[in-house]
Amino acid sequence: MPARLLSNDALLVDQPMSLRDIVTGLAEAELPGHTKQLLALLHDRPVAEATR
Predict the structure, then answer these.
(1) What confidence score (pLDDT) does residue 5 get?
(2) Are 47 and 37 spatial neighbours (Cβ–Cβ below 8 Å)?
(3) Is the pLDDT of residue 15 over 80?
(4) Distance CA 31, CA 15 (A)
(5) Nearest Cα residue to 26 out of 52, 3, 2
(6) Is-contact 50 39, C-beta < 8 A?
């Protein structure tokens, strides 16, 4: 499928990609950061401490 991915106005991808590649790429890029944020909220600690 056609894909155009931007991040902070920077073009990252502008080419056809499979839906699988789009989803797995976003998951690999985004999930670790969101996991750290959620752990920090769960333990009421800053993000850097929650990942130790």
Answers:
(1) 86
(2) yes
(3) yes
(4) 23
(5) 3
(6) yes
* pTM reported for the whole predicted model: 0.53
d(CA 46, CA 22): 31
**Structure-token pair, residue 38:** 């959620």
The DSSP annotation for the chain comes to -EEEEEETTEEEEEEE--HHHHHHHHHHHHHHHHHHHHHHHHHTS-HHHHT-
Nearest-angstrom CA–CA distance, 27 and 25: 5
Integer angstrom CA distances of residue 28 from 31, 43, 46, 48: 6, 24, 22, 19
